[in-house]
Amino acid sequence: MKCELVDVFAREKLNGNGLTIFSDCDELCSKEMLAWAQEMRQFESIFLQVKADEYHARIFTVEEELGFAGHPLLGLTYHLHERFGSDSEHEWTVHINGRPLRLSSKKTDSEFIATMSQGRPFYSYSLSEDEAQVLYSSLNLTKPDGLSSGAEVISTGLPYVILPVRSQLENISFNVRDLSPLIEPYGGKFLYVLDVDTLEGRTWDNKGLFEDVATGSAAGPVSAYLFKHGFVGDGEVIIKQGRFLGRPSEVKVRVVTCSSEIEDLQVSANVVKVADIAILC
Hints:
Diaminopimelate Epimerase, Chain A, domain 1
């Protein structure tokens, strides 16, 4: 088994969102993958398995396996380009949870850019004011005055409850032990607090123990929310995250539309390699 560390949404090492990539690990079972993810203590770790010349990935947090996540797949693109690529630009198909995802990579003398096509967003639920108020209260927040758009559950593979705010991100504190029982009835997996004026956001594991530096899986749903409610148009959207962890990051999303409907959400990231790690087995 091989292991390497990269930083995603970063132009320099020790910035952005760190990721551990495991490869040559076809023999690992789910229990062993979870144990290695817990050992590395990253927000997420990704395991690459090559089967019949196809690339298959599995993603784990320290608590569970995820059916989809953004920054691990973007970081994996660096590994694929480095190990299997021969040109400056490549297209890749990676299978995750039975779903093929399109990824692309571009390497120049000065940077490496990974892009993921998340496809069309799925709008699954709009929370009532009373339902949303429970979530605001759980995070020491209040619904901002004069904001017509409410909380929604949106997915491009992983369903997020998008909770809109205005200039309250620094006030957030968890008043509940676990958000899961509050968001699961609406089909949400995680909650993302979004400042709709500054396009900055914050998200955590549902117990509030780990805040994420930059969240690729949320970038598509966040951009879809902003587009739907008229905060942005088509073209490039830049979402800011990670400031409260001392690792400010920018997630770039291109909103591709046809007849005023979103056709694709393309999430891009700079990726830098940090280390090759020797595994003692």
